[in-house]
Design brief:
Blueprint (H helix, E strand, L loop, with lengths): L15 H7 L7 E6 L2 E6 L25
Antiparallel strand pairs: 1-2
């Protein structure tokens, strides 16, 4: 597990292994979410990069009647 230290300016450095796995580049935006006592960083993707990400999704899953 990677750990980080908060600087006096409340900055953190994302470990290199994590940056490489997620493909994070300098200047890229991250969304920060707080859930209970946890902070999550979510990589924001350009809408053009999202094209086709639902390709192959199953649509034949039974749904509740109020969700159709």
């Amino acid at each position: 597990m990677d750990t980080v230290t908060v600087s006096p300016k409340f900055q953190v450095v994302i470990p290199k292994a994590v940056r490489e796995r997620l493909g994070i580049q300098p200047g890229q935006k991250l969304q920060i979410l707080q859930f209970c006592d946890r902070i999550e960083f979510v990589v924001l993707q350009d809408i053009k990069q999202m094209r086709g990400f639902l390709q192959g999704i199953r649509t034949d899953i039974p749904r509740e009647k109020d969700r159709i």
